Amino acid sequence: MNSFYSWEELKELGFKFLGGRDILLSRKASIYGAENISIGNHTRIDDFCILSGDITIGEYVHISAFCGLYGGTAGIFLEDFCTVSSRNAIYAISDDYSGNAMTNPTVPEQYRQVESGIVHLGRYSILGTGCTVLPAVTVGEGASVGAMSLISRDVEPWTMNVGIPCRKIKERSRKLLEYAEKMKKEIQGHE
Question: End-to-end CA distance of the chain, in Å?
């Protein structure tokens, strides 16, 4: 047995949208609410990932092992060529930790204060291992975030960022855009 779902099995899971080509979804990933999840072509989701809630994944996206994407109703959007390294947690929803409300999903809603906001990872963005992304954050196009960073506010496009809280350390090279163009031309030549 293959460690990734076959195309027929993927269709049976009931996703909102499947791109149709080269989707590798590990059988060891946990999917909650497939009807709210869209997955583009050439995407790979590795072992022990959790996808829950409203999630849209573009093309050429890799979500490494042990990642959690919690979209709730606000949503998580990963644009084309995103990389989410292992052990990342991305939250479009989160409990209020101030003590002014109770926390966790076993508590009735009237005693909780859930914060939510769209999380958006732009094209060519990359999260290093062990990052946490909080609700209502945009990681701009081409931005990179180093390992173990806490992303609690927007990250500027084409910058390199690290830390708790995450902060810009320098500009990021755009050389990868040349490779993306070459790749597109090669793919068009093979079709």
Answer: 30
Query: The dihedral of CA 139, 145, 150, 153: what is its sign?
Result: negative
With contact defined as beta carbons under 8 Å apart, do 92 and 53 qualify?
Answer: yes
Q: For residue 185, which phi and psi values (nearest 5 degrees)?
A: -65, -40
Tens digit of pLDDT for each residue in 57-75? Answer: 999 999 999 999 999 999 9
- Report helix, strand or coil for 167: strand
pLDDT tens per residue across span 143-161? 999 999 999 999 999 999 9
Report whether 115 contacts 93 (CB < 8 A). Answer: yes
> What span, in angstroms and rounded, lies between the C-alpha atoms of 36 and 168?
33
What is the identity of the amino acid at 166?
Answer: C
- The separation between CA 109 and the C-alpha centre of its own chain, rounded to angstroms, equals 26
pTM of the complete model:
0.94
Helix (H) or strand (E) holding 77: strand 68-78
Mapping DSSP to helix (H, G, I), strand (E, B) and coil, where does residue 189 land? Answer: helix
Distances in Å between the Cα of 63 and the Cα atoms of 12, 45, 78, 171, 173 are 21, 5, 10, 24, 22
82: which 2 tokens? 């995103």
